[in-house]
Each structure stands twice: as structure tokens, then as C-alpha cells.
Amino acid sequence: MPASVPFVLLATVMGLSWWEDHILPAAPAEPVDTPAEALSVPAVPAQPAELPSADSALTREVATH
What's this model's pTM, rounded to 2 decimal places? Predict the structure, then answer.
């Protein structure tokens, strides 16, 4: 494998990045066809999982030994 392979790959990636930034059309900042009711629905917070109590069977078993 020639020593120049990493540099060729780096130049390829940098060229593609430049091409993406300067040549390709920019994506719209907001979707155009978003229904209004989808924006007004409030997000429901997730319920936190219940933590096991400190007085579990494992704690009692360790305390008895």
C-alpha cells in the first residue's frame, strides 16, 4: 500500500465536503408540507421508572449474613 493512500482519501473526503457545501442545493430549513395540527400537539413527558425500595429482599439477605 503506497504511503500516499491516506492523503488521497483525505483529499477525496475534503473535495466531497466542498462539493456538498457549494454545489448541491441547500435543504429547506423547515419542511414545507407540515400540517398545522402536528405542531400544536403537546409532547407528553415520559413517566420515570420506579426505583426499587431500599428494603428489598436482596438488602435483607445481605444484612442477615
Answer: 0.39
